[in-house]
Specification:
mainly alpha; 46% helix; 6% strand
C-alpha cells in the first residue's frame, strides 16, 4: 500500500538512517547466548551432559557428528545473515540517498562506519563458527542468493578487514559529548576487534577450512591493541572483580564494546543470557520464577581444580551446588557470573544487564598473547605486569615471574569464565587438539563425550541451508 513505508520511501530524514542503524544493532541481541551455547559449552569449562532428557547443548558439548539440524547453529547462521542483510540495505541507501538526506558529513560517515563495523562483527562470528560462508556485500534477491556459494575464509576476512579499517577511520573515540549514543561502536571497539581478527587469522590451519590461516600477523594485532592501551581511554577496575559486571556499573571504565539491553520496553528488548547456564531448580529453590535454563550444565572438575585458593573469581562466577525444592541436594557446580539475585526481572527474557563483548582486561591479555607470539613489545612490562595486576585483583598476591602461551590461556580461562571466550582461545592458540582430548580422557567419567578430531574445530553448515538448493553448499568435513 502507498500508505506503508518501504525501503525506497522510508529514508526521508537523518533520524530514519539512525533508526535503520539501530535495527542492525538489534541483531546482536542473541550474540551472548550464542557464545555461551557454542563456545563456552563446547569447551572444557563445562561437562554438559543432561540428566533431564536430551538437550540441544549435549551434542555441542559431546562432539556429535549429527549437529546440522541443531537449533543453535540454525540461529547462528540465520541471525548473522539477517544482520548482514540489514547492513547491506542500509549501506545501499546511504550510498543512494545519504548525501541528499544527511547534510552532516560526520554523521553520514559515522553511520556508515557503524554499519560496516556490525557487518564485520557478524561475518567474524560466522567465520569462527562455520569457516567458509557465502560472501554477500550488497543487497541480493532470494533467487540471487541461491546462486552464491561459500567463499574461501581468506576472502571473507578481506571484507571484514576492509569494513573494520573504514570503521577505525570514521568512528569517534567516544560519545562523551552525546551521552545518548553511549554503547554504539567506537574507534577503539573497531581497533580491538580488528586486532582479534588478525590474531585469529594467525592461528594454525589444522588442515581444515576454518578461521586460522597461519598468517603470522601478531605484529599487526599488537600495534592495534597497544594503541588502545597507550591512548588511555580505558583502565582496569581495581576495586573488585565483581564491579566489572555490576548491574549498577554498566558502561564502566573497562567496557570497550558491549551489547546494550533496554529492559521494560514493549516489545521486550532485555537479555536472556544471565540464566542460560543456570538450572531452573536453583531459581525455584530461592523462591524465584523459572527462567528457562532447564537442567544443570555442570562446570567441569578440570576447571574447578584450576582455581587457586583465594581466587575471588571462582566464588563470584560459579555456584557450588544448592538444595532443590523438596530437599534434594545438588552437589554439582554451574556458572552464574551474570546473575544478580536482587535484579531478577518479572519477565525471564528481560534481564537488565549489558553483555560485555570486549573489555580492557581482554585487550591487555590479547596484547600479551601477541608479545609471546613474537609480535613485538616487552615480556616484562606488557605480559607479566598486566597479568599480575589482573591476578592481584582476583586476590592472588604471588606474582608470576614467567608465562607461556598455555599458562596465559589458563589465566584467560579463569578470568573470562562465563563470557564465551574459551573455545576460541583454544582454537586460536593451537591448543585445542591437545587440551580437549586430554580433558575428555580425564573428565568424561560417564563416557558420554565422543572422541575429538580437528574437524570439530568448526561446526556443520545447518541442514536447513544445505537443503535450500542441493549442491550449492558442501557440508564441512566430519559431519553428517
Amino acid at each position: 500500500p502507498i500508505s506503508e513505508a518501504s525501503t525506497e520511501t522510508f529514508y526521508a530524514i537523518p533520524e530514519d538512517f539512525v533508526k535503520a542503524t539501530n535495527a542492525v544493532y538489534s541483531n546482536l541481541r542473541t550474540y551472548p547466548d550464542r557464545l555461551l551455547n557454542l563456545s563456552e559449552t563446547r569447551s572444557d569449562n563445562l561437562n554438559a551432559t543432561s540428566d533431564g532428557g536430551v538437550r540441544d547443548w549435549e551434542g555441542i558439548n559431546g562432539f556429535h557428528k549429527n549437529l546440522s539440524s541443531n537449533p543453535y547453529l540454525e540461529e547462528a547462521w540465520g541471525t548473522n545473515y539477517n544482520g548482514i542483510y540489514k547492513a547491506n540495505v542500509l549501506l545501499e541507501q546511504l550510498e543512494k540517498n545519504g548525501t541528499t538526506v544527511i547534510s552532516d558529513e560526520t554523521l553520514r560517515n559515522r553511520l556508515t562506519a557503524e554499519t560496516r563495523f556490525l557487518r564485520a562483527f557478524f561475518y567474524f562470528d560466522l567465520v569462527r563458527t562455520f569457516g567458509k560462508v557465502p560472501l554477500i556485500d550488497k543487497v541480493v534477491t532470494a533467487n540471487e542468493a541461491l546462486n552464491i556459494s561459500r567463499s574461501p575464509v581468506s576472502d571473507v576476512y578481506g571484507l571484514i578487514i576492509s569494513d573494520l579499517e573504514f570503521a577505525i577511520d570514521n568512528l569517534p573515540p567516544d560519545y562523551l559529548s552525546t551521552p545518548a549514543n553511549k554503547g554504539r561502536a567506537t574507534k577503539y571497539a573497531a581497533m580491538g576487534m580488528l586486532g582479534l581478527v588478525y590474531m585469529t587469522r594467525s592461528g594454525p590451519t589444522y588442515d581444515i577450512e576454518g578461521p586460522g590461516l597461519a598468517s603470522n600477523e601478531w605484529n599487526k594485532a599488537y600495534t592495534l591493541l597497544n594503541s588502545i592501551v597507550t591512548d588511555n581511554k580505558y583502565s582496569l577496575i581495581t576495586s573488585s572483580y565483581a564491579d566489572i559486571f555490576s548491574f549498577t556499573n554498566e558502561n564502566n571504565a573497562e567496557v570497550i564494546f558491549d551489547v546494550q539491553y533496554n529492559t521494560g520496553a514493549n516489545p521486550v528488548t532485555g537479555g536472556t543470557f544471565p540464566w542460560l547456564l543456570a538450572p531452573d531448580a536453583w531459581f525455584q529453590a530461592l523462591g524465584l520464577g523459572t527462567q528457562g535454563g532447564l537442567t544443570i550444565r555442570p562446570v567441569s572438575e578440570d576447571l574447578l581444580n584450576t582455581y587457586q585458593a583465594g581466587d575471588v573469581r571462582k566464588g563470584f562466577s560459579i555456584q557450588s551446588g544448592f538444595t532443590a525444592p523438596g530437599g534434594a541436594v545438588e552437589s554439582r557446580s554451574f556458572e552464574r557470573k551474570w546473575v544478580d539475585l536482587t535484579k531478577v526481572p518479572a519477565n525471564r527474557v528481560d534481564w537488565p544487564i549489558n553483555f560485555i563483548a570486549l573489555r580492557y582486561t581482554d585487550v591487555l591479555m590479547l596484547r600479551a598473547e601477541c608479545v609471546l607470539n613474537g609480535g613485538g613489545g616487552d615480556v616484562a612490562t606488557e605480559v607479566l605486569v598486566p597479568v599480575n595486576q589482573i591476578r592481584a585483583r582476583a586476590g592472588l598476591t604471588t606474582p608470576l615471574v614467567s608465562l607461556t602461551i598455555p599458562q596465559l590461556m589458563e589465566e584467560r580461562r579463569r578470568e573470562f569464565i562465563n563470557e564465551g571466550t574459551r573455545w576460541h582461545d583454544l582454537v586460536r592458540s593451537g591448543l585445542v587438539t591437545t587440551v580437549i582430548p586430554a580433558w575428555i580422557a580425564a573428565d568424561d567419567i560417564e563416557d558420554k563425550l565422543s572422541d575429538f578430531n580437528k574437524n570439530y574445530i568448526i561446526y556443520p553448515v545447518p541442514f536447513n541451508q544445505i537443503n535450500l538448493k542441493p549442491g550449492l553448499y558442501s557440508q564441512n568435513e566430519g559431519y553428517n
